[in-house]
Amino acid sequence: LLPAIQGRDESKAGQGITAIVCHPTLSVAFAGKYDGSVVAYSSKTGKEDAMLYLHPKGAFVTAIAISSQDVLASGDVNGNVYVWQLKMTPTRSLRTSSLLLKTSVGKAIQQLLISLTGDFVLISSATSNSVFSTRTSTCIGKLDIPQTESHTWKWLIRTGAQLELLLIVQDKVSRYSWDRFPNLLYPQALILPPQYQQMIEET
Fold this sequence. Notes:
Blueprint: E1 17-22, E2 28-33, E3 37-42, E4 48-54, E5 61-66, E6 71-76, E7 80-88, E8 94-104, E9 109-114, E10 120-125, E11 128-133, E12 139-144, E13 153-157, E14 164-169, E15 172-177, E16 190-191, H1 194-202
Antiparallel strand pairs: 1-2, 2-3, 3-4, 5-6, 6-7, 7-8, 9-10, 10-11, 11-12, 13-14, 14-15, 15-16
């Protein structure tokens, strides 16, 4: 007998998932893929529901975010960012409705966050952080990362605070305003206890 040979279906090559996020209130997951597509899946069955849109050819998706207001954002390795308003169809599926923002920051997107109201989106790359208004498609403000900064930056949304962003760098937590970014809400940074620092590093 001839030895078994492991192969792959070339028709599906380069279509692997590179970023994924779950809807906060619905049984839907959104995935960005290596081929630049953004796809909706049923989180109950795991089956693909729809291909929503495409990033430029050759740009795989590196970050994706969804809000409870059905605002979907995705960014790719070339720094392109798309923000779409989704709408519910009569069959209870989410589809793209209107393009709220299309921009590029020139570097691979590392993180995307959408405000609780759906009015703002944070775009974070290796060299800069920007907040855009999804209503006007304009940049609210930009915070550059110093070239000498070797620590990982991680952004979080503070639960219950509609217009507040948290930036964690090592053991320090700074609080920023969405609508007046990059203005600090408080000049003094909070210091994280060691056990919380480890939790942040692991995530």
